[in-house]
Amino acid sequence: MNKIKKINLKKNKSKIICLTAYSKNIASILDKYVDIILVGDSVGSVLYNHSTTKKVSLTNMIEHGKSVKAGIKKSLMVVDMPFNSYKNKIEALKNAKKIIKNTKCDAVKIEGGLSVKNIIHHLVKNKVKVMGHIGILPQTDSGRFKSKGKLPRERNRLIKEALELEKIGVFAIVLECVHSKTAKIITQNLKIPTIGIGSSLFCDGQILVTDDLIGLNNVKFKFLKRFINIRKYILEGIKKFKKEVENKKYPSKKFSY
Ligand code: KIV
Asked: How far is the CA of 250 from the centre of ligand 1 (A)?
């Protein structure tokens, strides 16, 4: 059975587990436990220290995608289409095909609802598997939105967008910081799965930026739970290395040629 079908069959049965990766080493750790690995354009802020994801290039996504692919044995791999790579149908298809050809990923993700509907439809018609993404849209939202879909007008717009995206053939939709009630309505009304980030337990699956959840990236969001503080373990190793080098214990004969 193909990977997308397998994931979609989890809806209403078991939760879909998704995390981001930007490199082979992290992807190879995640692979055993997750359903989807996303090469997110969050790489711009997490690794390159950009203030937004707007500066992430197609080349960045392809290079990180190639690295991630090398660490994956079983998970579905999705690569974000970066800002400005899907300005129109022709460019979007050309760039999606370039990402898929170079990274061998299973699907791409595009941010936006009705404004990108025709572009996504064009990709789907041309056999590109697409994951949608609505709610907070880091590539285009200006201002400091914390969440979306609390008020009825915005709730109705998000529901409409989700239904339209399903109709044109996306296989799943990320709901970023969507108000719980809205996330619940969307999830209940779609046949395809919703993947939440800060969008409540009602979603069919959950995604987080791995560097955030392991405490490597020092950020705070209401929705972010730090499941482990990996910095502590890295520091322990670095301190031991420093001490042994200073005490001329490392590299001993065993570690020398
Ligand atoms: O870029 C990213 O990592 C994402 C997830 C946070 C959903 O889009």
From this structure: 41
